[in-house]
Amino acid sequence: MDRSVNNQLMGFQSASRSARTSEGGQCSHSEHWADARARYRHLPLTQYCDSRTVTRKNVWQSTTIRTTLRSSRFGTTHAPRSAGICAVKWTIEGSLLGTPGNPPLERILKNYIDEKDSLAGARLTLLRKGPVELYRAQFLQSTLIAAIPLAPVSDAIREQLRYEYSIRDKLVGGFALRPLRYAVHNQNPALLLDDPGGRLLSELVSEAMTPDEFLRHALQVAMSLSSAHKVGLVHGGLTPSNILVQPADHRTNLTGFRAQGRILALATADGAEYEIDREYLHYVAPESTGRVNRIPDERSDLYSLGCIYFHMLTGEVVFPGLAPWELVHAHVARRPDDDALQNLRHQVGGPIVDLVCRLLAKEPNERYQTAADVVAELVTLRSLYQAKSSPSISRRRPLGLFQSEALLVGRRLEIDLLRRAIHDSGSEKKRSLWLVEGPAGIGKTTLINHLRKDSDGKSFEFAHGKCELEDGFTPYASLFRALNTLSRAALAYPPSQYEQLQRRLRDSLAEESSIITTIFPGLTGLLGEQAHKPAISPQAERSRFLEAIARLLSAFGTPDRPLLLFFDDLQWIDEATLEVVAYVMRSVLCRHVVVVAAMRDRQIEHQGPHVQPFLSTNAVERVPLGPLSEREVGSLLSAVLADSTDSSDTLVSALLRTAGGNPLHTIQLVRSLIADDVMVYDESAGKWNASLTDVEARSNKSNVVELLSARVATLPENSLVAIQYLAILAEPSSVDTVAAAMSVPENLVALALQDALDEQLIELRDGQYAFAHDRVRDSVYLTLSELQRDQKHVEVGVNLRNHVVKNELKTSAFVIAKHLARATLPAADPRRRQFASIIFEAALKAKEATAYESAISYLIDARRFLEDRVNLDGDLLSLIELRLGECEFACMRVAPASERLAAIRTQLLESEHRAELVRLRLAMYVALGQTEQALDIGYRYLAEETGIALSREIEPGSLELEYRRFLELYAGRTADELLALPFMNDDRVRNAMDVMTDLIPAVQFTSKELVEVLILRMINLSLEYGLCDASSYAYICLSFVAGAKFGDYTTTAIFGRVAMRLPKERGLNLYEGRVQMCFGSLSLPWTGPAAEAKQHLEEAAELTGRQGDLTFAVYSRRHIVTNLLFSGGSLSEAQKVAEDGLKLAREARFALVIDAFMAQAWFIRKLRGMPVDISLPDSSVDYAELLADCISGEYQRHIAAFAFWTYRLQASFLWGGRSS
């Protein structure tokens, strides 16, 4: 490429302004842009790599003239300009005085003035009043503009000035006032800007402009705004006093840029106004008020532009004479005055008014989508007005909005049904998922968006989770998008509302916010940062996460303002999110959360196997959407054509027969008919004519995908290639992500995507490119063969991974893994281990997020790359099998998990992982009541891995020998001395301690002496090698031996206190809940009152529940019941705890404790003479039969028979009948 083309390509991406040519002519933004696009279009993207060497300096040098007025330091001079709004000359002994409340300008300006200039005689002109006043300072040979805030200066104003200065490198090319310096005097800031001369637009709008004058100025403002948007800037505060106009040069410059995300703030909790830019209130977009569930973007500037245009045409603001709060409400809810619009139509013509009304649409999707679209429309209108012809261009053009979500016709019954669901939230009615279903393009998403706009008086929070085709097993992909919309909306709340939300979040979540922010780091700003303490087991972590999500959503959904949780394209929802949805629908916490989903009812390709079983339950209320009626198709056609006249009945009937009443199909059909001149606008008759024969001929030859494919085929090759990669990514992606996937420079990717944007095949939202509809993605994806798709998926995965490693690109491990999983590699290919490792990394992240089904899928994909490479990669394969078994056990697939874990070649695992394997198998066998198998693998591991030999048969004197060893190591030390022991450094011993901790529950159901020896051995190892997490658990269990066996309650008390202090003072808190339980059930019964023991047991129940240690959460409740029965506590309280504990034991599938609770329940029933709810099908079941089953051996668990028999003996002793 020649240098001039390079300069143009780079120049227009950095939004270089129209500059005077060497011949003195003018070149507009649109002409520059069109010329550059035309010149790059024929070149393949791979040839653009040379453009990376082009710098902004090159671009700047390519223009022949800079700005008209420059500071003298740039070597140009000029004559002083005329005064603006209010020219005031201050020449008191050579100093510039400040205005009331403002700092003197002398010190701010003096360092910036050249020696040949002087502050003496400087002319200072006030251009703009407001929170930030704008002055023009004219010196002898230079001029500049100073933006100075009124004192006292708020943090928000400081932030705004700093932000505008920080983006100065983007404000090149003449579309904006470029900051020169951020100055501070006596803590008062000021922003000094380059001055190109001219007047503020606010001086020109006091009277209505003529159409010609309006079009001239409107076009220049739109061009400057388009340039700002093209360099990635959102103005965020567009008003007439932020626009500098040079009528003679036909140029405008913008100033007053605000940081994205700055939402209008009006009042504190007590109603006091603050930080109000009153002028901006007349031009603020609805989504910038913070009162609607949308985030401001480029289209917010277009709404402000519409308000400015209205002011230019009428001489008045859109909503005159209103107080600040009334203005905010008007921008959100009111239309411009119909009489004013009607008068305007008579004065300037319908097309100009239509343009302004479209800019003023409340919904961003109903406005023009880019400033470039506004420029194109204004260019056409101006040429037509100059030719004095009837400007009917807006009627000629087909649908300006491709997005069918902007057009809703009919559907009143469905809207009313969903409104009732929102109004009934929190009632006692059965809670359901409301499923809006119908074929693609029927208007499902449109329906929900319309519901958001018109909720019939009942306001609600809104969270939107879009399910993407390639989400697959990416855990919580849809939930993440929904929570992200909630978080962003919350950050836009007024301060008082935001503080109320944070209080609700603190009250609801307590310390559990850490598990949410661990999985969704983006919510840290809302929930705060806390260290996460993982649960004891995978099952526990999952339960804990689901409860935390329910509590989070309950904080957003309140009786006055329920939460509408919407999942679009439910057929593609990931399994982890669907499990959350099911939990939320069951949770009583979420009674003010209304769950709505949209789903295709006919085409369910790639639907996850988990979706259909969920939809088959009675928890789903279906809201089917059928085809439009003929009258509704007519209304849709009028909206598509921007035509207020009635369309021909025969044309409407033909479209209905051809498109079948599908809105998306109808819209695309009309576009194709106009493009092919089958539909033609008759200017003389003022209506559209169509060849009905040609329309009918398409009925069997085209569907939506074919119509869209025809449009896709017209794109330039570079644009097609770029959106093919976007289709491969299959989710909204930023330009840097698309560029990384293609391994092409970002500026070239942005240029390549522009054609697809212009054709409205894709959208740009919040910096993310996405297809305008899933059907567009389908059409693009079909341009690739199956082989090409697989190859591109692998290419994208490799490219993204490389960019993550080299450039620290923030790309999800799940995104990379899903692409690499499609690779087919020869057995000897060394990339097999590399790909398996990358996918294994994604699996571990899914497991950490408690998305165990997703983790299993990734692990299976990773294993596929290594199955025939056992000799080469057996170590990684064994680790994959370990994680597979762990996740299967977490999903309660016990049989396959047991087989898989037993088959692992342990010699290929590292020592840490071998200990994990043993502990996992121990937990599995204990839960199943298979204690003998647990003892076998536990004792074998201790003997082989650590040399700790423990006999299954206790020899006489062995316990006493172990106790004497304990006394030697203990040596009578104080509690403080024991607490100060060093941490354990020997990994071998630490692993052994953890294994023995998990071995104790199995041992205690077989031999009391084995438990005592095991506890003493753990304490001795801790005294000899140092402290670890398991030390506190072993210390608290000393009462089993020292107290009960040897009567040494003093030593028991010392070690009990140390165990209680270790979690808080030494940070050894992994088993804190267990320690509390054992202290209340083992130590205090020997040394303290029962009431105090009960308090510790209740704290243990809460703590183990919060930690997710379900096994000991169940144990704690059983001990509370025992404590109540022992101490003569309330039987009704004992019954409630027993019922809750039994329910929890069933959820944990803890067979041993279920039996024990059943025995307790029987005993309480006997004591109270009334039944206890044990959640059995037959509420009148005879407990004696259950006892008989236990005794007969049917349960095959001795502890069950022991528990029943013990409680039966107690009842017989109390009430007689011992002989029975």
UniProtKB/TrEMBL annotation:
InterPro entries: AAA_16, Hybrid_Histidine_Kinase, Kinase-like_dom_sf, P-loop_NTPase, Prot_kinase_dom
Stretches for region Disordered: 1-28
Pfam family, one: Pkinase
Transmembrane segments: none
PROSITE patterns, per the entry: PROTEIN_KINASE_DOM (PS50011)
Domain Protein kinase: 63-379
Single GO MF annotation: protein kinase activity
Matching Gene3D superfamilies: P-loop containing nucleotide triphosphate hydrolases, Transferase(Phosphotransferase) domain 1
Protein name: Protein kinase domain-containing protein
Gene source species: Cupriavidus pauculus
